[in-house]
Design a protein that fits this description.
mainly alpha, globular, 6 helices, single chain
């Protein structure tokens, strides 16, 4: 009985979309904040040594927003998910190099590093499910 109730509630299409929204929330927020504060976005790129900073900032804004919309809209969801997985992996190795830090900063940075690896896994699962669902629908 509890399993059936959970399946009806969690299995509802709105819950699927809400889960995708939660997964994309940081990228939507980050993209919008950067878009409305381009000097801040450029300063962030400079902080991480990405040059030229302005094109990197614009590319980041575009990637975060467009990939999130692909995921939420279900159009090329797999591509949006793989894009955010790759972006997150690269950004994690750039921003969370915990192995270079001394304690206690190392602990916090390591936690953030592995949380972001978890996000990558979530996006890989989104891509996996989307591609498999498309394959099932394409079979006669």
């Amino acid at each position: 009985m509890i399993t059936n109730l959970a399946r009806r509630v969690i299995g509802a299409p709105v819950m699927h979309w809400l889960g995708l929204l939660c997964l994309c929330a940081a990228y939507l927020q980050g993209g919008l904040v950067k878009a409305f504060d381009l000097p801040g976005a450029i300063a962030e790129m400079n902080h991480f040594g990405l040059q030229p900073a302005a094109p990197f900032a614009l590319a980041t804004i575009g990637l975060e927003l467009v990939a999130s919309l692909l995921i939420l809209g279900g159009v090329w969801r797999w591509l949006g998910a793989l894009s955010l997985a790759g972006f997150t992996l690269m950004a994690t190795f750039l921003a969370n190099r915990f192995w270079e830090l001394a304690p206690p900063e190392r602990f916090m940075s390591a936690n953030s590093f592995f949380e972001h690896i978890g996000l990558c896994g979530g996006f890989l699962l989104v891509a996996w499910h989307d591609l498999n669902d498309r394959a099932k629908k394409a079979k006669p």
